[in-house]
Amino acid sequence: MFFRRNSHKHKLVAMGDSMAQGFKNGGVFRTDLSFPAFLARSMGNGITFEKPSFSAQAGIPINIEVLIRGLEEELGSEVTVWNSVQASRYVFQTLKRIKSYWEGKLKPLNIERDTPFHNQAIWGFSISDCWLIDEAYSRNHILDNKPRYSVFSVLPDHAMYTTARMVLNPSFDQALEHRSMVDNVIALQADGGIENLIICIGHNNIVGAATKLSIQFSEKSDLNAPFSKRTCTVFRPEHFKMELRKLYQNFDGLNIKRVFVPTIPYITIPPAIRGVNLDRSMPKDGYYDYYARFWIWDEDFDPEKHPHLTRQEAILLDQIVDEYNHIIYKLADEFGFHVVPVDRYVRAAARRRHVDDLVTPFPKDFIKSLKTNPKTEFLVDKKGMPRISTDYMRLDSETGKIDRGGIFSLDGLHPSTIGYGLIANLYKMSMEKHGVRFEKPIDWDFVIENETLVTDPPMLMHDLRLLLRFLALGRQERVMLFGKSIIQQVVEVFSSRPEV
Q1: Could you give the angle at which helices 464-471 and 64-75 cross, rounded to 10 degrees?
Q2: What's the confidence (pLDDT) of residue 477?
Q3: Residue 412, CB half-sphere, CA atoms under 13 Å: how many?
Q4: What's the structural domain count of the chain?
Q5: Which helix (H) or strand (E) segment is 16 a member of?
Q6: Considering the domain boundaries, does residue 412 fall inside one?
Q7: How sure is the predictor about 95, in pLDDT bands with cuts at 50, 70 and 90?
Q8: DSSP string, 314-354
Q9: Which of 25, 71, 195, 296 could crosslink 410 through cysteines, CB 3.0-4.6 Å?
Q10: Helices (DSSP H) in 395-449: which residue ranges?
Q11: How many Cβ atoms are within 10 Å of 80's Cβ, its own excluded?
Q12: What is the domain range of residue 366?
């Protein structure tokens, strides 16, 4: 069925996790701002790269930027004791509406479509989910785990599974309900062939250690098990290799012209967890004594009180990622795939990892676009270097402009629009080395203009970390929080020194 082709109908197909889907600011919103979409844009106007839409309600499960902008329109530039009830009402009404929409209560979520999208990526997926989870599994998981209707549950229940249904089988057609991500890629190959396939997966096989600040190694029961059945936060390297090999075997012999696979960046670099030294010093080797939630200020951090990873655990996680990347190179060589060294790029841009020797891997065209855009020209210093970093995004209190950050989005874990543009540029350079033709460079003017957090940051950004702190609270913590009055709760959430 799969023979050598001289031409390929599908010039670019992407599969994998949130990184390929374009997840940022806490959700999937504009999939046209994902790095595969930027690549397709550079391939030329005649390239078709179809992708699912999640623009309704500004994304799923949430869009923190849009929530902040709406709150600013409602209240102005700050939340105070005088408008705290109004702030609380707005946040909960907005989240309730988002929840109702993505649970299908306002309108049907399915569309008319019988062919797979070119972007098959789904946020939250680990390696085995690519062949284990299909639309039928996702639908049954939602049906078997009824939504919670309480004040503590204000985000869409089972949002990942809702996303999976809309990507894998957007028409909710019974005839297609058992197609997994792998099945859909194989279907595209059968339908005219794939010229370039990106398999961007593996991040979620270890990122749970950072999001949960807990290292739980995989056991045999976690292998070939879907998301809901796994209990680990870190796949042992030998288990990672077994799962990745099984995934790659699905595409062996299909005669896809080129397959590109990225390495995995250190999960200790994104600002979702921040390094803390109790003596406030900068580390000489790039590692801090503790890694805690990014909304916990250095002066407030207490290792006896706050969840954290230790220095030794952070080093261990980076060593495991190194082993993952060694496996990626070995298996890519075995299967004839091409490796995109994303890990080296992210490490080079990590300010808090380079005390005396900061590497600045920014393309000249990107810097030029920053300088020519009047909204971002201030981000290029007198030496012609961009003043963006891997820090959590912050505003200058006097100018209201971005003071640091810019590479990661407001969830602290996923890239910003600029970050995805930089990743696209790295892929483009790697793909060109292996014979992929692009008609034009990355459209940096388009990327920067759509980075609205940089070009037009909301003034409420200075309170943003505290809003995220509230959104990230566990259910038990919310029970404790709601034991207080709404006014006290909202004031504490938006205060500069939260008591809870």
Answers
A1: 120
A2: 45
A3: 21
A4: 1
A5: strand 13-16
A6: no
A7: confident
A8: HHHHHHHHHHHHHHHHHHHHHHT-EEE-HHHHHHHH-GGG-
A9: 25
A10: 417-433, 444-449
A11: 13
A12: 10-269+311-376+420-456
